[in-house]
C-alpha cells in the first residue's frame, strides 16, 4: 500500500498534464460537440495518446504491454479529467482489456491485446439495460445452438459503443453470466449513437439473434460474474481518478474567479460565506485524493478489499464532483450558466460520470453490504 | 529484510514480552495513567507497563535519547505505534507535556531548559496543563490580557485563563502572557512556564454538559515567575504558541485514538441495537445510510492521515494537508457520536441508572463531550478561515 507516486509515475503525470492541456483542452471537446463529430473523439489525439504509451500501460509485457500499473494509468486519467478529454482509453483499455486479461483465452489475448496496445483495436462493454447501473441479472441472453451461441437483447448507455471495433456483451446464460466478444459489424447488430449532455460517446445497441462461435465466450459462465466484477471495479476506480482531475480543475478555476471578481467594491473571495464553502470543497478534494490513490494501489497490489475501495472511491468522487460543479456554477454567478464558460461542461460531465458504473446510493449500499451490514 | 522490517520484528517481540495482557484491553477513563508528582496507578500491571516503556524512552519515542526519549526516527516511531495498535497496547502515559509542550521546548528551549524539562516529561514526573484561552477571548487567542511584568529577576503575573484542561490536577502550566501591552496584538506575547505551587495560583473546575469537569479556570494573583522559565524570545511567544497549536490540532485530529468510549464500534452497535433484515442489511435503511456515510468518511480520513505521513517520508509533503485534519477529524467525530446516539435510540438516553449499561452511558457522555472538539483548539470556523486564507489564498 502506498499513497504517493514514485518518481517515474510523477514524471508520467507531468508529461500527461502537459500533453493534455496543450493538445486537448476543453475547447477540443467543445469543437467535437459543435461539429456533431461522428466519431466523438479525434483519431489523431488517440494516436498520440497511444504513442505516449497510455493504451499499453497496464497490459502485460507478453502482449506488447508496458506492465506499468494502475497508479501510473490513474495519474494519466486524472490529468485527462482536467480537460474532459474524449478518447476510447476508458472503454477500451480499462474496461475492455481488463476483461480480456482476466478471463480471455490465449487465443483471445493474442488476437486482441497487441492491437489494443497499438491503438488499432477499440472495445466497448455492452452492460447496462436499465435506467440505473446493473451488475447482474441481464435480460440479454446467450443461448447455445450447436457450436454457436445466439445473443438476443438490447443494451443501453454503451460507452464508445457506436465506434468500437469489438463489443463485449454481458449476457445471461443457463449457468451464469456470459461475456462474449463480438465483432461490431456482425450481422444482427444495430447501433444507435446518442448525444448526451456531456458531449461524449454512448450508444444503444440491439443484438437481434446475433450468432457467434463459442470461441468468442470469454472464460466461462461460472467465472463470468467475477471477471465482470473485476472490470467494473477497475472501471469505477479509474473513472474516480478522472472525476478527481475534473473536480480539481473546476475547483481551481472557481477559486481563481473568487480572487478576481469584484462585487460591492471588494473581491467576492473575501466573503466568509464563500470562503468557508471553498475551504470545505478543498477538504473534500483532499480526502478524495487519498481514496483514489489507495484504490489505484489496491489494483496494483491485487488487494482483497478492492471492491470496498472501488465503491468508496466512486461514491466519494460522485459526491465531491457534484458538490464542486454545483458550487462552481453558483459562485460564478450569471456567467456560470452560460455556454461560453467551460464550467457548464464540467457540470454536465459530472452527472454522466455519476451514472457510469453506479451512483453514490448504489455504492453506499454495496459498501455497507460488503462490510456486513 | 529491510532495517525497518527488522526493527518491526524487534519491537513486536519486545511488546509481546513486556506488555502485560491486562494492558492490551481497551482502556477506561479511570485506568489512564497521567503524569505527575503523585502518579496514580489503577493496578500493578499499569505501573509495570509504564515503567518498562519509560525506561525504553518510549513514552516519547521520537525525542532524543540523550534527554531520555526513545531516539526513534519518524518511520520507526510509526512502526512502534502500529505494532502497539496491532497488539492493542494501551498508551502507558498521558500528559500534555508529551503531546504539546515537549516538542516546543525541543524546538525553542535553551539547553538548560531542555535538560530541566524534557527528561522529567519523558519520566512522567510532572503533569502539565495549558494556559492559552482567556475568559471572553475564545478563538481570538491573540487578544489575551494576562500580564507578565518585568521585575528584574522575575516576572509578576496577573490575570486569568480558561479551559485549562485538568489544571486542578496539574503540577505546572505553560502559558501565553502579555509582556508588552503597547505592541500590536500578536507581537507583545511571551511563552512562560509556571509552577502551580507558586503562591497566587488558584484553579476552579467548570462543570460541562457531559457532567464532567475536566476544564478549569486558573487565576494568577501576583505570581512571581523566574525569568529562566521564559521559552523562546521575549515578546516572540506567538511563534512558540503556533508550533504548539499545530501539535494540539494534530492530536485532536487523530480520531479513534485512546479516548475511552463504548466498547462497540458504530457498526457493531448497529447490528446489536437495530438488527439485520433477511438480506443482511440494517433494518432501518435511513440509519444504515447515515452509518455508511460516516464509515466511508472515516476511512477516507484515515487514508489521508496515512498519505500525509507518506508524503512527508518521501519528501513530497503538501504542507497544507495537516491543516485540514483538525476540522475534518473533529467534525467526523461529532457525526460518529450522532450516529451512535441514533443507533442506540432510547437506550442512549440514560443519565445514571442501573437500567443502562456502561456502554450506553458512555455513548451519551461521548456525544456530549464531542461537542467540545470542534470548539477547543480553534473552532471549526477558525479552521475554515485558515484554510481559505493560507491554503487557497483568498483575499481578506
Description:
The complex is a heterodimer of chains A (373) and B (396). With 373 residues, chain A is an alpha+beta fold. Chain A contains eleven helices and ten strands. In chain A, strand 9 and strand 10 form a beta hairpin. In chain A, helix 7 runs parallel beside helix 9 and helix 9 runs antiparallel to helix 10. The longest helix of chain A is centred in the middle third of the chain and has 37 residues. The radius of gyration of chain A is 21 Å and the shape is globular. In chain A, 54% of the residues are buried. The mean pLDDT of chain A is 97. Chain B has 396 residues and is α+β, with helices and mostly antiparallel strands. Chain B is 44% helix and 13% strand. Chain B is built from eleven helices and eight strands. In chain B, strand 2 and strand 3 form a beta hairpin. In chain B, helix 8 runs antiparallel to helix 9 and helix 9 runs antiparallel to helix 10. The chains are: A alpha+beta (373), B alpha+beta (396). Chains A and B meet through helix 7, strand 10, helix 8, helix 9 and helix 11 of A and helix 7, helix 8, helix 9 and helix 11 of B.
Q: Topology, pairings included?
A:
The complex is a heterodimer of chains A (373) and B (396).
Chain A (H helix, E strand, L loop, with lengths): L6 H17 L2 H9 L8 H9 L18 H13 L6 H15 L2 H12 L5 E4 L14 E5 L2 E12 L6 E8 L2 E8 L5 E7 L5 E13 L3 E2 L5 H37 L1 E2 L2 E2 L4 H29 L5 H27 L10 H13 L4 H11 L3
Parallel strand pairs in A: 1-4
Antiparallel strand pairs in A: 2-3, 3-7, 4-5, 5-8, 6-7, 9-10
Helix pairs in contact in A: 1-4, 4-7, 5-6, 5-7, 7-8, 7-9, 7-10, 8-9, 9-10, 9-11
Chain B lengths: L2 H16 L25 H13 L17 H14 L8 H13 L2 H12 L5 E4 L15 E5 L2 E9 L9 E7 L10 E7 L5 E5 L10 E11 L3 E2 L5 H17 L12 H8 L11 H29 L7 H24 L13 H16 L6 H12 L5
Helix pairs in contact in B: 1-3, 4-5, 4-6, 6-9, 7-9, 8-9, 9-10, 9-11
